[in-house]
Amino acid sequence: MEKERKSYVAHCLVLPYPAQGHINPMLQFSKRLVQRGVKVTLVTVVSNWKTMNNKNFTSIEVESISDGYDDGGLAAAESLEVYKDTFWRVGPQTLTELVHSLAASGNPANCVIYDAFLPWALDVAKKFGLLGAAFFTQSCSTNNIYRHVYKKLLELPLSQTEYFIPGLPKLAAGDLPSFLNKYGSYPGYFDIVVNQFANIDKADWVLANTFDELEQGVVDWLLKIWPLKTIGPCLPSMFLDKRLQGDKDYGVSMYNPNSEACIKWLDDKPKKSVVYVSFGSMAGLSEEQTEELAWGLRDSGSYFIWVVRDSEKGKLPKEFVDTSEKGLILTWCPQLLVLTHEALGCFLTHCGWNSTLEAVCLGVPLIAMPLWTDQITNAKLIEDEWKIGVKAVADEKDIVRRQTIKQCIREILENGKGNEIKNNGIKWKNLAKNYVDEGGNSDKNIAEFVAALAHRCT
Ligand code: UDX
Fold first, then answer.
1. If pLDDT is split at 50, 70 and 90, which confidence band does 55 have?
2. Of 22, 148, 341, 350, which is the active-site residue?
3. Among 153, 243, 249, 274, which one is least packed by beta carbons within 10 Å?
4. Which InterPro entries match (predicted)?
5. Distance CA 83, CA 85 (A)
6. In angstroms, what CA-CA distances link 253 with 2, 19, 20, 23, 282?
7. Residue 346: beta bridge partners?
8. What pLDDT does residue 58 have?
9. Is 143 a pocket residue for ligand 1 (Cβ < 6 Å)?
10. pLDDT > 90 in the chain, percent
């Protein structure tokens, strides 16, 4: 028993919020820890554990705790609010049980790296005298906005047309995350994002999935108030620095990607000709928006791959499914393989933080079509700060019309503005790679984190 303990630097429990966009980056970060001699146990909820397509990550163990909905998770709850209340009550108990059982089996944890969405995990860690690190899966920009709300430095409902938040460019009210500009629309999520900061002062570290240059102003500002370490971009190594030898899996998928058909379809398309369309793992489009997008894609005359999850399929116009010749509609795809394929021309995205970072790291030009949450702010940064894409602007009914979609695709795929965007993309891609490469700041920050863990766990 003693012998096994000495064979690793520390044992970390890594607990993501149970959603694709949270598990992916925390898993990739875990692999970097393992590479540096840390033992990692990935902790997920039972329902998620049952559906994960891959539980055999090299050197990472997977354990489950209950969120109160072992069959179905959030989908089985009456509402997000009910789910949240139950998870926030049951989660601390079942995490406590796990900490106990690991200790009893001679495998005690030293540190809990918890998704900042789940602040109660830090309380559990502290109750047992363990170290605690908050992990922010969304951008520092968005989190600084939420922190200002938590501190009541930003009053709601919004009453100004412009906002000046430290470290961020001037933002119009409409550029703030949807939970603020549509205040009251999602009380459960609002609670989650704002209460991330309730006990953060007790955290030993704050880890953020970003890189300094991308969010320099806000990172510099947050460094003054938090023990912050920027450890991103958390992509599978094989798509970025290629330093994790033998790391073959590129993540967890909560859906089954039709990888072979997808790549085969791309293989015979001309270079940089295909528009990839995806709105991530959670968000849904209205029927009207789905129809406008469908005809916008068709009218553009471009090849496209469109990820339409099963729950969204019924919204597709019937004649479109029958007549589309240039498109491939899939329930889920291997996004990173698509983004790196030479046939890819651009990515029409909902601007989820993972999709945004993936596109940044791979130098893919974007058409930003944000739907809700942090996506609104990410879209603003994509267009105006990083200049790696164009925003598809919605009309007064909040619908992006087919003409706009067609125009954005043309703008990106054709020369002119498209070229400028592509050149900016190459600049960001190189910065991201340098950040993660040996000696880059991400690499150094992870090394410092592990050294501090080792120091405090001896
Ligand atoms: C959610 C929120 O929507 C997002 O705004 C927030 O920043 C994180 O949580 P999600 O909607 O799933 O995430 O979007 P995103 O953050 O982009 O993550 C989606 C992940 O699924 C990406 O890693 C992407 O590569 C992957 N994916 C998506 C696939 O592997 N295949 C697909 O077909 C679609």
1. low
2. 22
3. 153
4. UDP_glucos_trans (IPR002213), UDP_glycos_trans_CS (IPR035595)
5. 6
6. 36, 10, 7, 9, 13
7. 275
8. 66
9. no
10. 87
pTM above 0.80? yes
Please state the atom number of ligand 1 nearest to the C-alpha of residue 354: 16
* Residue whose CB lies within 8 A of the most ligand 1 atoms, among 80, 239, 354, 364, for a mutation test: 354
What's the CA gap between 453 and 393, in Å, rounded? 46
pLDDT at 252: 67
Query: Ligand 1 in contact with 377 (CB < 6 A)?
Result: no
* pLDDT at 265 (0 to 100): 96
> What order of strands is seen across the sheet that includes strand 303-307?
327-330, 303-307, 274-278, 344-349, 366-368, 389-391
pLDDT of residue 3: 45
Looking up tokens 């900061």, which residue turns up?
197
Mutate to test the pocket of ligand 1, among 17, 20, 357 (most ligand atoms within 8 A of CB): 20
pLDDT band, very low/low/confident/very high, at 417 (cuts 50, 70, 90): confident
Ligand 1 centroid–CA 256 distance in Å is: 14
Residue among 335, 231, 204 at smallest CA distance from 276: 335
Active site residue 212: no
Tokens 């006990």 label which residue?
199
115 an active-site residue?
Answer: yes
- Check residue 39 and give left, alpha or beta (phi > 0: left; psi -120 to 50: alpha): beta
Single-letter amino acid code for the residue at 420: E
**Does the Cβ of 355 fall within 6 Å of ligand 1?**
yes
How many whole angstroms from its chain centre is CA 28? 11
Structure tokens at 13: 């429990």
Ligand 1: atom nearest CA of 333 is: 33
For the Cβ of 142 lying below 6 angstroms from any atom of ligand 1, the answer is no
- Candidates 189, 209, 355: which one to mutate for ligand 1, based on the most atoms within 8 Å of Cβ? 355
The reply to whether ligand 1 has any atom less than 6 angstroms from the CB of 358 is: yes
Residue 194, both tokens: 């704002």
